[in-house]
């Protein structure tokens, strides 16, 4: 097995738009094992190669699923890389990968890029995440931060340089900011949720597509503050202190039931429909949306309701193309969105 590591109930009201193009194209690194949608018979091993890239937030889920799947299917080579949500969609639209991991729904420009190459996709919500706002453990002056305070820190024209600039009750300790790069879906989601518009953010912060770099930065800086997916906090909680946002701390319970707001969100896989013609891809997705869902929590994220995974598998089987999540607002449960799309 080769795994490359460059490494809520936030729910959305369905907005139905068409899939990309009329005919998909098989990624360059894909094996050609069939021309009709199929799956390996029960108990039969599959072989081939599956390529995944995209969000660093989704990366731990993809990697955990890939490792578990190849234990039972050692003749399948899983390539799991991380280049950010935007970077993954660029490779996906170019036909270079089978599956793109995304920490936000696909955008219009990315759909158009798919259309230009004749690529159609199936959208799969795979897990819940709660963006975690973290500080250095030596920070003993803040336990809870409001959305307004986060906006004051991160808005494009922010003049905040010390913690006292945010709240007069806090010390004049210099504030050092760490966050994802502009190609990240996490950046897109956070800026929309906190600043009101995607990609609207101050730029004088240490940016990285690698969340481990952000962990290192905050953990080494007394005045540090950063944000990234919940799994990276869970993996590094001995080095970090997580803040409550508007009185609620991120946890499997608060993320799953939607009380951790506005920073709870679904995570996605986007699958090239041509890749679904190959038994190894069908087998992997059947595993991931079935027995493999236990790997979501093992990766540090929150599983969707069982019905949501069942409906997602029906979309795979029927090759239901397009997106139900693009441009929508919080409100509905994910399984309700998938039911609406099915109709």
Q: Report low-confidence residues grouped into runs of 5 or more.
A: 1-26, 28-42
Query: What percent strand?
Result: 15-25%
In the CATH classification, which architecture of the largest domain applies?
Answer: 3-Layer(aba) Sandwich
SSE class? alpha/beta
The CATH superfamily of the largest domain is identified as: Periplasmic binding protein-like II
Helix content: 25-40%
Measured between the Cα atoms of the first and last residue, the distance is 39 Å
Helix and strand sequence: EHEHEHEEEHHEHEHEHEEHEHHHH
Average residue-wise pLDDT: 85
Question: What's the structural domain tally?
Answer: 2
CATH class of the largest domain: Alpha Beta
Q: Remind me, CATH topology of the largest domain?
A: D-Maltodextrin-Binding Protein, domain 2
Determine Rg (CA atoms, Å). 20 Å
What is the 3D shape? elongated
Number of strands: 12
Give the strand order, joined by hyphens, for the main sheet. 2-1-3-12-4
Give the helix tally.
13
Explain how this protein is built:
33% of the residues lie in helices and 16% in strands. With 343 residues, it is an alpha/beta fold. The protein folds into 2 domains: 48-129 and 265-342, D-Maltodextrin-Binding Protein, domain 2 (3-Layer(aba) Sandwich), CATH 3.40.190; 132-249, Periplasmic binding protein-like II (D-Maltodextrin-Binding Protein, domain 2, 3-Layer(aba) Sandwich).
Give me the secondary-structure topology.
Layout: E1 48-54, H1 59-72, E2 76-80, H2 85-93, E3 99-102, H3 108-116, E4 121-130, E5 132-135, E6 144-145, H4 147-154, H5 163-166, E7 176-179, H6 185-195, E8 206-207, H7 211-219, E9 224-228, H8 230-235, E10 241-242, E11 244-245, H9 252-256, E12 264-272, H10 279-288, H11 294-298, H12 306-318, H13 334-342
Parallel strand pairs: 1-2, 1-3, 6-11, 7-8, 7-9
Antiparallel strand pairs: 3-12, 4-12, 5-9, 5-10
Helix pairs in contact: 2-3, 12-13
């Amino acid at each position: 097995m080769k795994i490359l590591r460059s490494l809520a109930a936030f729910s959305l009201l369905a907005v139905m738009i068409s899939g990309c193009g009329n005919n998909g194209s098989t990624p360059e690194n894909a094996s050609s094992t069939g021309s009709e949608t199929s799956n390996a018979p029960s108990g039969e091993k599959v072989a081939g190669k599956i390529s995944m890239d995209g969000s660093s937030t989704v990366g731990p889920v993809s990697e955990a699923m890939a490792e578990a799947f190849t234990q039972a299917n050692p003749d399948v080579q899983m390539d799991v890389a991380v280049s950010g949500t935007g970077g993954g969609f660029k490779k996906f639209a170019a036909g270079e990968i089978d599956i793109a991991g995304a920490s936000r729904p696909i955008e219009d420009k990315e759909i158009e890029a798919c259309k230009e190459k004749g690529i159609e996709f199936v959208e799969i919500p795979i897990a819940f995440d709660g963006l975690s706002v973290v500080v250095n453990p030596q920070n003993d002056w803040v336990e809870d931060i409001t959305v307004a305070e986060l906006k004051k820190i991160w808005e494009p024209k922010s003049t905040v340089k010390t913690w006292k600039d945010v709240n007069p009750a806090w010390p004049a300790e210099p504030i050092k900011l760490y966050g994802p790069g502009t190609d990240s879906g996490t950046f897109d989601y956070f800026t929309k949720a906190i600043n009101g518009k995607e990609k609207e953010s101050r730029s004088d912060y240490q940016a990285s597509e690698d969340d481990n770099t952000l962990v290192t930065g905050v953990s080494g800086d007394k005045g540090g503050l950063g944000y990234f997916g919940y799994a990276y906090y869970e993996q590094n909680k001995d080095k970090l202190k997580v803040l409550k946002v508007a009185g609620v701390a991120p946890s499997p319970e608060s993320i799953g039931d939607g009380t951790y707001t506005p920073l709870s969100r679904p995570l996605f896989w986007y699958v090239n429909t041509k890749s679904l013609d190959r038994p190894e891809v069908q087998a992997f997705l059947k595993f991931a949306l079935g027995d493999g869902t236990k790997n979501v929590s093992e990766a540090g994220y929150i599983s969707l309701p069982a019905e949501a995974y069942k409906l997602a598998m029906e979309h795979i089987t029927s090759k239901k193309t397009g997106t139900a999540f693009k441009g929508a607002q919080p409100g509905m449960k994910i399984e309700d969105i998938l039911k609406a799309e099915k109709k």
